[in-house]
Write a structure and sequence with these properties.
- The complex is a heterotetramer, with two copies of chain A and two copies of chain B.
- Chain A is of the alpha/beta class.
- In chain A, 16% of the residues lie in helices and 25% in strands.
- Chain B is α/β, with parallel strands linked by helices.
- Helices cover 20% and strands 26% of the residues of chain B.
- Chain B starts with 13 loop residues before the first helix and ends in an 18-residue tail after the last strand.
- The chains are: A alpha/beta, B alpha/beta.
Chain lengths: 220, 239, 239, 220
């Protein structure tokens, strides 16, 4: 079976630590904001220039001057601040943002990530992704374990143009939670309820270390 | 006193603000997506018909708004940006080779603009190392981490948009409409600021200025702001 | 909601703010002359007796105020600054070799602090080329002008002072008391901000924040500010 | 004879052009602000973080949070702005300040300047001087033609540690107005009322070009 998008986001939210500033990418990462654990205080940064980003506005309250990096209308929470793109990326490059969560098309077993360009297809640009992955101390990738053709997205080396090298620390997919280590490659930490280790092994093309008991992901 | 205590930057309108803008120049445009873009200046450049523009802007607008207007008229020959989706005409011109595109990581783009304005000709950043962005660039290790050397941008003109400005060119932005505008103000040799509200000198709190007037050469009150929203997203209404 | 929407940075007082400050650390101090200096933190460091401090600060205070207090007690072993006049004890220690001094051009000092906070490990600047400041440094020509390579500063602690701050660490400065404080806030691994007024989250205008709370790890309300004036200069009173 | 400090400042003020941002150093340069010609609008920058610097406050209105780079209490004029030292030196390094006026101990005939350090004496530091001279497009030095021992301060090469190289464009002394050119060295433009060309030649140790009529400085 595996996790759905919301469950992937919920599992990633378990990684949050009190007092972290967090940057969430477009797609599944955005959903992480809906699952902040009790007692954990988090501020969300959006790289276009806001700290303290809140939920979407209620209808009629949209403000063209208040958007996130996905160009969606948002709100600002009490304690928010606005700043320039230079200051925003100073926060990111200077490692003041403790966690970046983003999607990926491919991740290699040394932590390389490809998520911005498919040769032959229209290139939209890397936006802030290269700055984010090159800088963040802690990068979690949220993605499906395989692509639409059923091929593994966890590879020994990326086939697509890279966004960053040796930067991904953890991957949460519909099937598993995986740590990325420079020497041992992918290390299986948890599996989705009802998903077998064999299935994960089969769908992971890069080196995958399975050691000891692998517990099921708990979402409670 | 026989002299004013400030330097007036006011020009009458967007058209007057373009004085000196010629074909084949490099021009910066503030804004992120359609947020905080210099709507009046873009329209005036379209009307003036300036050609051969190399455009430095984080995005390229949409088909019928923002920089999309200058793409439609083929006034832009090269686009330096970090993200150029959401624009069919852009895609067509790029794929047909009519439009040259140079993609730059967003933080690097911001910092290269700031560097230009700050007299820093080059700096090292980790962004893009190991990717095609690093091709041909100097690599150096700092704190065991590889970085690439990036250069400041030059721009004879920058067009930006602020919320409020005074006649001395001091600017204040609202919300996330600030984005690239402050650094491009710094980088432009001639920076044209259009504002929603143009106030008298002395009306803005000197502690609250986002861009000091020294970075602005021309200012005018814009008209008819559309401020289009690209992705209107809302929450369920509370009961 | 079971969680706050902000991250509280409040500590009880200057003493509590020093937690983790150990001997032989590099420490940044905001301020220009005696303007905008973290008076409470300096006094607390004197009381704590932390030794072997390498101090990054534009100036070194005067004999009986500012960083002069930590010089008198010999808590500072090295001073990185741009201007160190007006302090006899400083002069004595420097000439006797007790105190190491590294003089850095003021703009380079400011930029090296900002660079540290912005993840820029090194940048080129024209300042100091051809002078003893350039000794041993890499020189490179940009736009036919020689520049030297300067490195970001590292600092496990930064002590700064703001006018107002909220509990999430957002800061606002007043007048020229801003000076080095914002960049040092960015550069410090642990940045301690003392403020004249500590307000609730939500009281400060998010458009008017000078230093976003992400750059501040600890904040407290300072007490008993002396705010000494170094050069009291006045005009003749109008009649 | 020669000009006094105020007259030197007054002559320098004649160089001001409408719309210039100007940074004035300590000493004679500060006095330039008192002599702005009619119809010329100028804003003064002080590198500690203000544009639109006004005169000293009236007694009782001094504010410890409002000083200039000389640590003197000042005022802010309407249209002023405050900013950080990084932004301040961005203005300076980025050549947004059109004119810098500062004092000097020595200037060479190729425009090198020494004004921060005397070997064997207490070194106070360069402050912002090295950034200012390395960056400014237009640097005018205000100083006396000779030092206290009567020795020329206009040399073929500086004997003191340099503040910057090949940067000074013009010098206004008590005796003369002198242009500094990279190829021809000092070029005499004007002489103080009653001061002879011979005296200026005698007191100028570096190369001095005297060509054609040399008018007297006019202060009206």
């Amino acid at each position: 079976m595996g996790l759905n998008k919301n469950q992937i986001a919920q599992r990633i939210a378990q990684e949050l630590k009190d007092g972290w500033y967090v940057n969430l990418g477009i797609g599944i990462p955005t959903l992480v904001a809906n699952h902040i654990p009790k007692g954990i205080n988090i501020e969300f940064q959006s790289e276009n220039g806001i700290l303290g980003m809140g939920p979407f506005p209620v209808e009629g309250k949209e403000d063209a001057d208040l958007i996130n990096a996905g160009k969606q209308t948002i709100t600002a929470l009490p304690g928010a601040s606005f700043f320039s793109s230079a200051t925003s990326f100073a926060m990111i490059r200077g490692q003041h943002v403790q966690l970046t969560v983003l999607g990926a098309m491919e991740v290699s077993d040394v932590g390389d990530i490809a998520n911005w360009k498919i040769p032959g297809k229209m290139v939209k640009g890397m936006g802030g992704a290269m700055d984010l992955v090159a800088s963040a101390d802690n990068i979690i990738v949220a993605m499906r374990h395989t692509n639409r053709r059923g091929e593994s997205k966890l590879l020994s080396s990326c086939s697509l143009p890279l966004t960053g090298v040796a930067c991904v620390k953890k991957i949460v997919t519909d099937l598993a939670v995986i740590k990325v280590t420079p020497n041992k490659g992918f290390v299986l930490l948890e599996r989705a309820p009802g998903v077998s280790i064999e299935e994960i092994q089969e769908k992971t093309a890069g080196r995958l270390l399975v050691e000891g008991d692998i517990p099921e992901i708990s979402l409670d | 006193m026989s002299h004013k205590n400030y330097i007036s930057k006011v020009v009458s309108d967007a058209h007057a603000a373009l004085d000196g803008l010629e074909d084949n120049m490099t021009v910066m445009f503030g804004g992120f997506g359609l947020c905080g873009i210099p709507e009046n200046s873009i329209a005036a450049i379209r009307d003036k018909g300036t050609k051969g523009i190399t455009c430095i802007s984080n995005n390229a607008g949409v088909d019928d708004f923002g920089l999309g207007l200058l793409l439609k008229t083929r006034q832009i020959v090269k686009m330096i940006a970090s993200y150029v989706g959401e624009n069919d005409e852009f895609e067509r011109q790029m794929l047909s080779g009519e439009l040259e595109v140079d993609l730059v990581p967003q933080g690097t783009l911001a910092e290269r603009c700031r560097a230009a304005g700050a007299g820093i000709p080059a700096f090292f950043t980790p962004a893009g190392y190991g990717t095609e962005v690093a091709k041909g660039k100097e690599v150096r290790i700092f704190n065991s981490k590889p970085h690439i050397l990036e250069y400041a941008f030059d721009a004879p003109f920058a067009f930006i948009k602020a919320w409020k400005g005074d006649k001395a060119g001091n600017l204040i932005f609202k919300g996330t409409a600030r984005n690239f505008n402050p650094m491009m103000a710094m980088a432009g040799k001639i920076t044209v600021a259009e504002v929603e509200e143009l106030v008298e000198v002395g009306e803005l709190d000197p502690n609250g200025i986002h861009v000091p007037g020294i970075f602005v050469q021309r200012i005018f009150k814009g008209i008819g702001y559309e401020k289009r929203i690209e992705q209107r997203t809302v929450s369920a209404k509370a009961e």
